Amino acid sequence: MTIPASRAKAHLRAVDPVIGRVIDRVGPFRLRPTVEGTHFGAVLHSIVYQQLSGSAAATIYGRVLALFGGREPTPHELLRVDDTALRGAGLSGQKTRYVKDLALHAAERGFPIERLHELDDATVMDTLTQVKGVGRWTAQMFLMFRLGRPDVLPELDLGVQKGVQRAYGLRRLPTPKQVMKRGARWAPYRTVASWYLWRVLELPSD
Fold first, then answer.
1. Which positions of the chain have pLDDT values less than 70?
2. pTM
3. Is 198 in contact with 191 (CB distance < 8 Å)?
């Protein structure tokens, strides 16, 4: 899905002058969903990268793929790999259980892992969070960066919270509930607003 950036920015400027100023400072909207590979591979990637620095996660992810000749495994291939091999690639015991649970779900005939793009946002969230290790935040990142859905507000994301705090000059970090309340006006383009809130943290302080 392609997010209509011009329409989204016009809407955000109209409903929230603060976000409008952020848009003016940051510049063009550059979120481009990742289309390579499978949905299963995208969720696998997300689980491996959880709570790790980018470089460390990339190294471990590369080692996991090396177990399959350098490519994304299928669910059945991942299920056949011994846990010790995944641990040897650098996955923790917990993440090894998570990726195996993902593969187990994805291998089931009724689990729509490769049809997620056909489902509405709420159903995607409900489907993905059935997998151990896939919480609300991970499912939201999938919606934004894999499916390109335009109206996702990751209220639990620390970067979004810090972006709101900085953009609005708040003394304290807003709670997830406060982020949702403030962001209600941004619908149906909350993904775009979130992206700009991440980017505002990269700007020099006023």
1. 1, 206
2. 0.91
3. no
Q: Where are the domains of the chain?
A: 5-32+152-200, 39-145
Query: Domain 39-145 in CATH: superfamily?
Result: Hypothetical protein; domain 2 (1.10.340.30)
Question: Is CATH 1.10.760.10 the right assignment for the domain spanning 5-32+152-200?
Answer: no
* Cβ-count burial 55-79 (b if 16+ within 10 Å, e if not): eebeebbebbbebeeeebbbbeebe
Query: Does 39-145 match 5-32+152-200 at the fold level?
Result: no
Q: Which long-range contacts (CB under 8 A, 24 or more apart) does 109-118 make?
A: 113/38, 113/39, 113/40, 113/43, 113/75, 114/38, 114/39, 114/40, 116/39, 116/142, 116/147, 117/1, 117/39, 117/147
Residues 152 and 33: beta-carbon distance below 8 Å: no
Residue 26's CB is within 10 A of a number of other CB atoms, namely 17
The predicted-structure confidence for 132-169, as pLDDT tens digits, reads as follows: 999 999 999 999 999 999 999 999 999 999 999 999 99
